[in-house]
Design brief:
Layout: H1 8-14, E1 15-20, E2 23-28, H2 40-53, E3 59-64, H3 75-82, H4 93-100, E4 106-110, E5 113-115, H5 117-124, E6 127-131, E7 135-137, H6 151-159, H7 161-170, E8 174-175, H8 176-182, E9 187-189, H9 193-207, H10 227-241, H11 247-260, H12 263-278, H13 281-295, E10 313-317, H14 321-332, E11 336-340, H15 344-363, H16 369-378, E12 379-382, E13 393-396, H17 402-415, E14 421-424, H18 431-435, E15 444-449, E16 458-463, H19 469-481, E17 485-490, H20 497-513, H21 518-528, H22 534-541, H23 543-552, H24 566-572, E18 585-587, E19 593-595, H25 597-609, H26 619-639, H27 646-656, H28 666-673, H29 675-689, H30 697-705, H31 709-717
Parallel strand pairs: 2-3, 3-4, 4-6, 5-7, 6-9, 10-11, 10-13, 11-12, 13-14, 14-15, 16-17
Antiparallel strand pairs: 1-2, 7-8, 15-16, 18-19
Helix pairs in contact: 3-13, 5-6, 6-7, 6-11, 7-10, 7-11, 10-11, 11-12, 13-27, 14-15, 20-26, 21-26, 23-24, 26-29, 29-30
The structure holds (S)-3-Hydroxyhexanoyl-CoA.
Length: 718
C-alpha cells in the first residue's frame, strides 16, 4: 500500500478492533466522517490480517465510529494530487482483494453514509447491511473524478450496468431500501446496528460459506439490451444532466470496461481514467467548490463557543413572492412560521401562491398530499403581530422601500423578545440605516434570500456595523437549518452578489449596443457554463426591478460614465420581462426566450442615434468583456473587506448566480486563466473603453506577484 505516513500507534487509533462472542468488530475512527486518510487503509488492512489469523474469530464486522460509516477518500489528499502535490491517490487495490479473500466472512455494517471509497470498500466485503436511514453512493462526479477504488467494477457486479451508470453519473446516493432493492445491500437492520451486525455475522459464520466475492460475480453484469446500448443511454443521460462535465463520461467508459473486460483488466482501465480526471481543471475547480462551501461557515470571530439561539419559531412580515418562499423554506425544515400581511387580500393571495407551489410539487411527485398538509399547517397566516413576541427570528420581507421597511422595523422592535434576531430580506438597502431605527441594532442582520426562496440554496447574511456575533451566528444556524449555504458578507450597495452583477449586466448591454445580439451574448455565456445568459436573467428578475435598483443605488450619477441605453427603453415600452411575456426576448406559453425583431430594431436604432460603432464579436471577447468586470469588482470587494475570502465570492456565484461549479466560481476561474492575463486585458479595456475598467489595486498586486485569489485566501487564513 502506498500510504504509510503515520506511525503504527496512530494507525491503531484510527482503526480499533474489539472482540465480541467470536466476532471481530473493526471500528474506523477518523472523525468527523471517517475519510480514508493516510493510515486508515493501512489500519483496516492490519485489523483484517489479525482477525483472519485469529482462530477465536469466526466472522468480522467493519463499521464506522461516530456519526457515519466512511465518506470516501480524503478529499484534501485528492486536492493535493489534483494540484500535483502530495503522495498521490491512495491505491486500495491490495486492501480490497485482501478483504475479499479473507477466509472469514466480512460484514460491512453501514450507518450514516458509505460514499465514494467508503462504498467501494464496503463492496469488497462479503455482505453489506445498513440501518434504514443510511445512504450509499458514488458521488465522485461532483468532484470531477470517477470512482478510483474499483467502484466502477464492483458496483455493476452487484447492481447491474444500468444502475451503476445511473449512480455514477448522477452522483446521487441511494437510501438503504433502494440499495437493498438494487442488490447493493443484503439486509436492512431495524434497531441497533451493532447488535444487528453481530447477529448477522454469527448466522453467516454458522452457515459456513462459501462467502461470495463481489469481483467474481460476473453473472450480475446484466444489461436489459446490449452493453453498447446501455452505454449510449448513459452518455445521453450524462450530456443531458451533467452538461460540460467530463467525469461522468469517463465513469461510463470505466463501467463499459466492467462489461467487456475481466475484473483484472477492468480495474486497470478504471485507474487510468481516474488519473486522467484527477489531473483535470474540472477536478481542481469542483474540489475548490466543495471546500469553499464548507469554508463559509468558518467566520472570524465566531468560535465553537459562540452561543447559538435555539430555533423553533420564525415570524415573517410580508406574504409576497419572497415572504411566501421564505415561509415555505422554513416550513419544509420543520419550523413553525407566523406569516403576517397588512391586508386580507394580500394574505389570501400569498397563501394561495404557497398552495399552488406545493400542489405543483405534488404533481411532479416530489411531495405527497400528506406532507404538503403537514407543511401548510406549520404556516400561520395572520393580519396582526400576535405571537411575534415568542419568535426567535423575525424576517421582514415587505416591498423594497427604505421608509416602509423602517416603519416595520420600528413596530417590530417594540414588541419582539430582547434576544430575537431582526432580519431584513433586502437585496439592496443599507442594513445599518435600518438597524438604526431599532432599540437593539446589535440584533439586526440582513438575510438576502434568492428567488424562489424555497428552492435557491444561497443566503447572503449581511453583517451591519452594529451586528453582534451572536446575531450572525444565529443567522448561520438558520441557514443550516433551512439547508441553505449562508455566506456572511459586509454591508455595501448590492452586497456582494448584486454589486458584482452590475458591471457584468451593464457590460452585456454595452456589447449589444456595439453590435452583438442578446441571443449571441447569452449563447456565449451559456456555452462558457453560466446556467443562463444575462439577458434571460434580466427578463426573469424583471426589467422594472433592474431599473429601480439602478436608480436607488444612483449607479450612473457620475455624468462622464457611459450609461446603458436600451433597458430604460424596454421599461418604457412595458417590456418588463417574463412577467409581461416580453422583455429582451419574447416568451410563449413554454416560457422559452425567442429573439424579437422589435428589440433588435430598437437596439440598432438607438445605437445609430447615439453614434455607437457596430462590429462583430467572438464568443471569447463576449466572455472576457462580461466576466472580467465581475472579477475586477470581486477583487475590490475582497480588498475592501466586504467578503472574508475569494472562495466566499465563488460560493455566492455558484449557488446564487448560476456560475458553473466546474469553473469553480469567478475568482477561482480568474486563477485558472491567470491573473496576469486578466489584468493585462482589463488594462486594454480601460484604454479602449474608459474608466469603468480601472483595474482593482488587489488584482494588480496579485498579478504582479504571480499569485491567484486562492493564494490570497491561503495567506489570509494562515
Ligand atoms: C473518493 O472517495 C474517491 C474514491 O473513489 C477513491 C479514490 C482512490 N474527505 O459536509 P460536512 C469534511 S472521493 C475529507 O459539513 P455533513 C468536510 O470538509 C470522496 N474531508 O458534514 C467538513 O470539514 P470541516 C467521495 C471530508 O454532515 C467535515 O468533514 N465522497 C470528507 O453535512 C464535515 O462535512 C464524497 O464526495 C472527505 N471525504 O455531511 C463525500 N467529507 O468541518 C463528501 C467530508 O473542516 N462528503 N469532509 O469543514 C459529504 O458529502 C458530506 O461531508 C457528508 C456529511 C454527507 C459525508
Amino acid at each position: 500500500m502506498s500510504l504509510s505516513c503515520r506511525s503504527e500507534a496512530e494507525n491503531d487509533r484510527l482503526v480499533i478492533t474489539v472482540h465480541q462472542d467470536g466476532v471481530a468488530v473493526i471500528l474506523v475512527n477518523n472523525p468527523p466522517v471517517n475519510a480514508l486518510s493516510a493510515g486508515v487503509p493501512e489500519g483496516i488492512a492490519g485489523a483484517i490480517e489479525t482477525a483472519d489469523a485469529d482462530p477465536s474469530v469466526r466472522a468480522i464486522v467493519l463499521m464506522g465510529g461516530g456519526r457515519t460509516f466512511i465518506a470516501g477518500a480524503d478529499i484534501k489528499q485528492l486536492e493535493e494530487l489534483a494540484w500535483g502535490q502530495g503522495p498521490g491517490a491512495p491505491n486500495l487495490h491490495e486492501l480490497l482483494l485482501r478483504i475479499e479473500d479473507c477466509a472469514k466472512p466480512v460484514v460491512m455494517a453501514i450507518h450514516g453514509a458509505a460514499l465514494g471509497g467508503g462504498l467501494e470498500l464496503a463492496m469488497a466485503g462479503h455482505y453489506r447491511i445498513a440501518v434504514r436511514d443510511a445512504q450509499v453512493g458514488q458521488p465522485e462526479v461532483n468532484l470531477g473524478i470517477i470512482p478510483g477504488a474499483e467502484g466502477t467494477q464492483r458496483l455493476p457486479r452487484l447492481a447491474g450496468i444500468e444502475k451503476a451508470i445511473e449512480m455514477c453519473v448522477s452522483g446521487k446516493p441511494l437510501k438503504a431500501a433502494e440499495a437493498l432493492a438494487a442488490g447493493i445491500l443484503d439486509s436492512v437492520v431495524e434497531g441497533d446496528l451493532r447488535t444487528g451486525a453481530l447477529a448477522f455475522a454469527r448466522r453467516i459464520a454458522e452457515g459456513g460459506g462459501p462467502h461470495r466475492k463481489t469481483r467474481e460475480r460476473a453473472a450480475q453484469l446484466k444489461v436489459q439490451a446490449t452493453l453498447e446500448e446501455a452505454l449510449a443511454a448513459g452518455r445521453e443521460l450524462s450530456l443531458k444532466t451533467k452538461k460540460n462535465l467530463v467525469a461522468p463520461l469517463r465513469a461510463i467508459q470505466a463501467i463499459g470496461a466492467a462489461g467487456s473486460m475481466s475484473f483484472e483488466h477492468g480495474y486497470i482501465r478504471e485507474r487510468q481514467l481516474f488519473q486522467e480526471c484527477v489531473a483535470s481543471d474540472q477536478c481542481r475547480a469542483l474540489i475548490h467548490a466543495f471546500f469553499a462551501e464548507r469554508g463559509v461557515t468558518k467566520v472570524p470571530g465566531i468560535g465553537k463557543d459562540t452561543p447559538v439561539l435555539p430555533l423553533t419559531r420564525v415570524a415573517i412580515v410580508g406574504a409576497g413572492t419572497m415572504g411566501g418562499g421564505i415561509a415555505m423554506a422554513c416550513a419544509n425544515s420543520g419550523l413553525t412560521v407566523l406569516l403576517k400581511e397588512s391586508r386580507q387580500e394580500a394574505l389570501d393571495a400569498g397563501m394561495a401562491a404557497i398552495r399552488r407551489n406545493y400542489d405543483a410539487s405534488v404533481k411532479r411527485g416530489r411531495f405527497t398530499e400528506e406532507l404538503v398538509a403537514e407543511r401548510m399547517a406549520r404556516i400561520r397566516p395572520q393580519l396582526d403581530y400576535a405571537g411575534f413576541e415568542t419568535a426567535e427570528v423575525v424576517i421582514e420581507a415587505v416591498f423594497e422601500n427604505m421608509e416602509l421597511k423602517k416603519h416595520v422595523f420600528r413596530e417590530l422592535t417594540a414588541l419582539v423578545d430582547p434576544d430575537c434576531v431582526l432580519a431584513s430580506n433586502t437585496s439592496t438597502l443599507n442594513i445599518d440605516e435600518l438597524a438604526s431605527v431599532t432599540r437593539r441594532p446589535e440584533n439586526v442582520v440582513g438575510l438576502h434570500f434568492f428567488t424562489p426562496a424555497n428552492v435557491m440554496r444561497l443566503l447572503e447574511i449581511v453583517r451591519g456595523r452594529a451586528a453582534a456575533m451572536e446575531t450572525v451566528s444565529a443567522a448561520l444556524a438558520l441557514a443550516k437549518r433551512l439547508s441553505k449555504v449562508g455566506v456572511v458578507v459586509g454591508n455595501c450597495p448590492g452586497f456582494v452578489g448584486n454589486r458584482m452583477m452590475f458591471p457584468y449586466m451593464f457590460e452585456t448591454q454595452f456589447l449589444v449596443e456595439e453590435g452583438a445580439t442578446p441571443e449571441q451574448v447569452d449563447g456565449a455565456l451559456t456555452r462558457f457554463g453560466m446556467a443562463m445568459g444575462m439577458f434571460e436573467v434580466d427578463d426573469l428578475a424583471g426589467i422594472d426591478v433592474a431599473c429601480r435598483v439602478r436608480q436607488e443605488l444612483g449607479l450612473f450619477s457620475e455624468p462622464s460614465m457611459r450609461k446603458p441605453l436600451i433597458q430604460d427603453r424596454l421599461y418604457e415600452m412595458g417590456r418588463l420581462g417574463q412577467k409581461t411575456g416580453k422583455g429582451w426576448y419574447s416568451y410563449g406559453t413554454d416560457r422559452k426566450p425567442v429573439p424579437d425583431p422589435e428589440v433588435l430594431n430598437l437596439i440598432r436604432t438607438v445605437a445609430r442615434e447615439a453614434g455607437i460603432e457596430q462590429r462583430e464579436f467572438s464568443d471569447e471577447e463576449i466572455v472576457e468583456r462580461s466576466l472580467y468586470g465581475l472579477i475586477n469588482e470581486g477583487a475590490r470587494i475582497l480588498e475592501e473587506g466586504y467578503a472574508f475570502r475569494a472562495a466566499d465570492i465563488d460560493v455566492i456565484y455558484v449557488n446564487g448566480y448560476g456560475f458553473a461549479a466546474w469553473r469553480g466560481g469567478p475568482m477561482f476561474y480568474a486563477g485558472a486563466v491567470g491573473l496576469k492575463k486578466i489584468y493585462k486585458r482589463i488594462c486594454e479595456f480601460q484604454r479602449e473603453l474608459g474608466e469603468r475598467w480601472k483595474p482593482a489595486p488587489l488584482l494588480r498586486r496579485l498579478a504582479e506577484e504571480g499569485k491567484s485569489f486562492r493564494d490570497y485566501d491561503a495567506e489570509h487564513s494562515a
